[in-house]
Structure formats: structure tokens, C-alpha cells
UniProtKB/TrEMBL annotation:
Stored InterPro entries: 5'-Nucleotdase_C (IPR008334), 5'-Nucleotdase_C_sf (IPR036907), 5_nucleotidase/apyrase (IPR006179), Calcineurin-like_PHP (IPR004843), Metallo-depent_PP-like (IPR029052)
GO cellular component, one term: outer membrane-bounded periplasmic space
One Gene Ontology biological process: nucleotide catabolic process
Protein name as it appears in the record: Bifunctional metallophosphatase/5'-nucleotidase
Organism of derivation: Photobacterium swingsii
């Protein structure tokens, strides 16, 4: 019988970094009386991989000084988000995550936005494993250019055999000879929100987790940690459903766990929330903060203590503006610094010169070039909102969709219209010059390609209604507001209170100089992102295509940049294309 001992480990963790290698400018509202009120709004430089690296090195040193083992993990979604991903895809992430010392990473949904091969290419460059216990790769086509299944650094699902029960592969961390097992869990509805290859599948989270815990214990390990990309609420539920796990370290919902009211933000539970004997943690997003979980296991595998701290990682200069040009006067600056230095959820960090050198030598030059490449001029504020509100619909999303249709026509297709989901547009635009960096780094940071497809009018109607139903939970359990459709060369009314299946009215496309009603059995040509064209988040009716989606081999950002370059300026559309009549009646489910 295995003789177990107590074990103490500090686990530094990040999640949802989304290629934010550079610092972000964030605003604090500090409790300092001013002439204008009882709080002082100031901006600080926060996070970035150089500061994460410095913080991790310090936390590691402190752990060892206090007789604790140390581990550094990432809870998924390192892909997408900035120009660094647009330019370098997963390769920059792999090399920079290696450089800051990540030891294991969970599979996030955005890792699969571009299919399995981008993940496979990423893994060819990582020094750490990707944990995805409920990802079944056993049916993967091995004739692919770069299959995942043979890679030793993807710890995926292992089906039952005559010799072994089913379980998810896991890694083992040794703490003075005592073993801690770590396995990962990914969103089981991955095909609904990302683009995994159809020959790989995601299995039920709870079933696989229970199988894996059982096998780990049968193999003589009673101390277990889950690295999750399920979202905070699902992690809390899993803590209650799953026995025998000491901690769930999570991501996906960008939850800034802890009390940050001292900085003018809110409170999301205590850091290191204990629930049914399991500790649940999450550490914000965009490499702005570092979670530092101190986990003390009893000999029997139960948690004696779970503590630690979740800290924002700051530089030492503060300004009144996000562009960091309006400086505080010296006395005020010192008062702000003294206040922040006294806060337990703030850590001042120097930038790691090795990470800075890597960025400077391999990646920053191309990014800086795009930041100075002007494309056109934004003539007026262009507001983005996902679902139309009292101020109206998005003003920038329709221009983005116009670019998609323009791109399809440029490549020789007789495109009737284009459709894009609101969540694919990520920013409003202010008046002034528009650069390549603004487009690929802020407005359209998801490096997803465009696709052209043919579909009958009746399925178009169903897809538009399904997407809006999904966005507003109108009779369905939706996946979020990002599915709301914006369109080009198309117009319609969505009436929320109408009967399901008849909520899209007056659906028309502009053809030969006039608006014409969409006919159910007529086949139309459309352009969308690969995400929408493949039926995600309510658009599943588009899968009834007459012509399978064909890649244009152009990303969303590339199409918009090329289109915007042909325009002297960008202005808001002069008409509303989606007349959204919201739910204001009592009989809506």
C-alpha cells in the first residue's frame, strides 16, 4: 500500500492571454479626494509577458525559500487577440510561453478557431504539454499534413481497452517524492463555438473527469489538480460534482477573481474559493495579472489549506490618460505609488530583459511597421454594439460586412450578400487615421478566413432568426450576444414577439437597382467568416448549403484593410439594415 505524505505547492497561473505580449493601459479609480470628487482616476501600464515573467520568477523563488514546490500553468486561450497572432499565428505564442516558463496548458476554444493544424503547429514548438483529457483524437485521419494524435505533448483521451479503463492522460508533478497529478478539461461543445476538425471529438466533461480521477487514484496518486477551460460558473459546479480533486484552475470567462474594490473595480468571490473540498481559481485575462495559488495537501489528498493572492502586475509610472502623455504632478504621483504599493492585490514588476530581447529581435519590428501603416481616415465616431440598443445598431459592423462582400466579388464570385456575427467585431473606432494595426490588432483580431457558399432563401431566413434567438435567449439557451448578425446588401426585420420560425420579416436583397424579396427556393451566394459559414452559434441552418463553403484564403482583417484602402474615409451607414424589434411583451419564453 502506498504511503502518502503531505505536500505543499505554489501554482502560478494565467489564462486567456490572447497574445497580449505587450502591456495594457488600464484605469484605476483610487480613493483619494480631489477637487472633482472623492476618487482619483489614473492610468497605469499593466501586465505583458515581460512583467509576467519577472513576477513568476519572484514567486518561484519565494516558494522555494519557504519549502514549497512550484509550478506555472496556463488555463487556455493563448491564441487570437493582437497583431502578434495575426502575423505569427501560434508560433510566437509557443516561443514566448516557453520563454516565460509555462509547464502545462489547457486547451482553450480559441486555439481551435482555425482548426486542428494550427494547434499541431503550435505543439511542434512548445516545451510543455497541452492538457485536454476529454479530447478524443483516436479517430483522427493520420494522412493529414500534421496530425495531433501521435504527438507526445498532447495529453488527450485514452479509450478503454481490455487492459485499461478509459481515462484522460495526465502529467505528474513530484513534490519531494510525493506525486501530484494534473489533467485538463476543454469545453465539450467545442464544435459549437470553434472549428475543431470533424474527425476529433470532445466528450462529456464530468464523465471523463470521474474516469480520470478513478484511474489516477488506482495508480497510487491521491493529490489531483484540474486545469480547466470551462468558465468560472462551470468550474464551481464541477467542484460540487467531482470528488477527489484539490483544485480547479480555470479560464474562459476572464473572471477577475478576488476583491478589487480598492482599485475601483468589483468583487468576484474570494481568491481561492473553496467549495466541497475543492479550491477554484481564475486570473482575469490578457496577461494583466498573475494568480498565485498556495495549495497544502494533507497526506490523504484532501486540502488542508488553499490560499495565496491574485495580483495585477504594474509598472511604476501613472498618468491621467490612456496614451500616457498627461503626467501627474510629482507629489500626486508619489501618493498614488505609495497607495498602490500598500495593496495586497498589486505587484510592481520590472520587465524581464530576456523577454524584451526576444520580442525586439523576433516580433516587434513587423508589428511596429503595421502600427505606422495608414489605410484610410475615420471621419466620425463609429460605435460598435452587439445587439442594437436605444442608440441603434453597430455602425462599424455593417462596414466590415461590406468588405466581406467586396472581397468575394473581387475574387470573381457573383455575391448576393454577406453576413457576419457581431462578436467577430471587437472595437469601436474614433475619428482619425486608421492603421493596419488598428484593423488586425483591435477591430478584427480573430485571424479567421472568409468563405463563400450558396444557400437557399429559406435556410438563410432560418439562420438569421436562429442567430438572433441565440444572441438574446429567445426560446433557446443561447451561447452569447456575439451571434447577432450584421449584413451587407440585405435587409430584414426581426420581431422578437412573433411566433418562433416567423420572426424574420421583409427579408430582401438589393439586385439590379431594386430591393427584392428573398424567395425560399432560390439559391443565393453569400460570404461570411469561416466561423459563421460553418454554422456556429445559431447559424446551423447554413449547413443546408447548395455549395459547400469555399475558402477565399483571405482573413477578415485582410479583407477589411483592402476594402478600406479603396475609400477616402469611413462613415456610418446611412440606413439600418437590421430592424430589430426587441422583446417587450409578456408572452416571450
Amino acid at each position: 500500500m502506498t504511503q502518502h505524505r503531505a505536500a505543499k505547492i505554489t501554482i502560478a497561473h494565467i489564462n486567456d492571454t490572447h497574445s497580449h505580449f505587450e502591456p495594457s493601459a488600464i484605469q484605476f479609480n483610487l480613493p483619494m479626494p480631489t477637487e472633482q470628487g472623492e476618487s482619483l482616476p489614473v492610468y497605469a501600464s499593466c501586465g505583458g509577458f515581460s512583467r509576467v515573467s519577472s513576477a513568476v520568477q519572484d514567486v518561484k523563488k519565494q516558494a522555494y525559500l519557504h519549502g514549497r514546490e512550484f509550478m506555472f500553468v496556463h488555463a487556455g486561450d493563448c491564441f487570437q487577440g493582437t497583431l502578434y497572432f495575426s502575423l505569427y499565428k501560434g508560433i510566437a505564442n509557443a516561443k514566448l510561453l516557453n520563454a516565460i516558463g509555462v509547464e502545462a496548458m489547457a486547451l482553450g476554444n480559441h486555439e481551435l478557431d482555425m482548426g486542428n493544424q494550427t494547434v499541431a503547429d503550435f505543439l511542434d514548438h512548445t516545451n510543455f504539454p497541452l492538457l485536454a483529457a476529454n479530447w478524443d483524437l483516436t479517430q483522427e485521419d493520420q494522412s493529414k499534413a500534421n496530425p495531433l494524435q501521435p504527438k507526445p505533448n498532447v495529453l488527450s483521451y485514452k479509450p478503454a481497452t481490455d487492459e485499461s479503463p478509459a481515462y484522460g492522460r495526465y502529467l505528474v508533478k513530484s513534490v519531494d517524492g510525493e506525486k501530484i497529478a494534473v489533467f485538463g478539461l476543454a469545453i465539450e461543445n467545442m464544435e459549437g463555438i470553434a472549428n475543431p476538425d470533424p474527425d476529433t471529438h470532445f466528450l462529456n466533461v464530468l464523465k471523463v473527469a470521474k474516469e480520470t480521477v478513478s484511474v489516477i487514484r488506482a495508480n497510487g496518486i491521491n493529490k489531483i489538480v484540474v486545469l480547466s477551460h470551462l468558465g468560472y460558473a462551470r468550474d464551481l459546479l464541477l467542484a460540487e460534482e467531482l470528488d477527489g480533486v484539490g483544485a480547479i484552475i480555470g479560464g474562459h470567462t476572464h473572471t477577475m477573481q478576488g476583491d478589487f474594490s480598492n482599485l475601483g473595480y468589483g468583487v468576484t468571490d474570494d481568491y481561492a474559493r473553496m467549495l466541497s473540498g475543492t479550491c477554484v481559481v481564475q486570473a482575469g485575462c490578457n496577461a494583466m495579472s498573475l494568480g498565485q495559488l498556495e495549495l497544502d495537501f494533507n497526506a490523504d489528498g484532501s486540502v488542508e489549506r488553499a490560499g495565496g493572492v491574485h495580483q495585477l502586475l504594474l509598472g511604476r509610472q501613472f498618468t491621467f490618460d490612456a496614451s500616457r502623455t498627461e503626467h501627474l504632478e510629482e507629489g500626486q504621483h508619489q501618493a498614488v505609488k505609495a497607495y498602490l504599493q500598500a495593496q495586497p492585490n498589486v505587484r510592481f514588476c520590472v520587465k524581464d530583459p530576456e523577454i524584451e530581447n526576444l520580442l525586439n529581435s523576433d516580433y516587434r519590428p513587423a508589428v511596429r511597421q503595421l502600427q505606422t501603416q495608414h489605410i484610410t481616415k475615420v471621419a466620425e465616431p463609429l460605435r460598435h454594439t452587439r445587439i442594437p440598443d436605444a442608440k441603434g445598431p453597430s455602425q462599424i459592423a455593417p462596414l466590415v460586412v461590406d468588405a466581406f462582400r467586396w472581397q468575394g466579388i473581387q475574387q470573381g464570385y457573383d455575391v448576393d450578400f454577406a453576413i457576419h456575427n457581431a462578436g467577430g467585431v471587437r472595437a469601436s473606432l474614433n475619428p482619425g487615421p486608421l492603421t493596419s494595426a488598428d484593423i488586425a490588432g483591435r477591430l478584427l483580431p480573430f485571424a479567421i478566413g472568409l468563405m463563400v457558399y450558396k444557400v437557399k432563401g429559406k435556410y438563410l431566413r432560418q439562420a438569421l432568426e436562429g442567430a438572433i434567438n441565440n444572441a438574446i435567449d429567445n426560446g433557446v439557451e443561447g451561447t452569447g450576444s456575439g451571434s447577432f448578425p450584421y449584413v451587407s446588401n440585405l435587409r430584414f426585420t426581426y420581431r422578437c414577439c412573433a411566433e418562433k420560425g416567423a420572426r424574420v420579416e421583409s427579408l430582401e436583397t438589393f439586385k439590379e437597382g431594386e430591393w427584392r424579396l428573398i424567395e425560399d427556393d432560390v439559391v443565393y451566394t453569400s460570404v461570411s467568416s469561416g466561423y459563421t459559414a460553418t454554422g456556429k452559434e445559431g447559424y446551423d441552418a447554413l449547413l443546408n448549403y447548395e455549395m459547400e463553403p469555399v475558402a477565399l484564403n483571405v482573413t477578415m482583417a485582410e479583407a477589411f484593410e483592402a476594402y478600406a484602402y479603396t475609400l477616402s474615409e469611413l462613415r456610418a451607414p446611412d440606413s439600418i439594415r437590421v430592424n430589430y424589434i426587441p422583446c417587450q411583451c409578456a408572452d416571450v419564453a
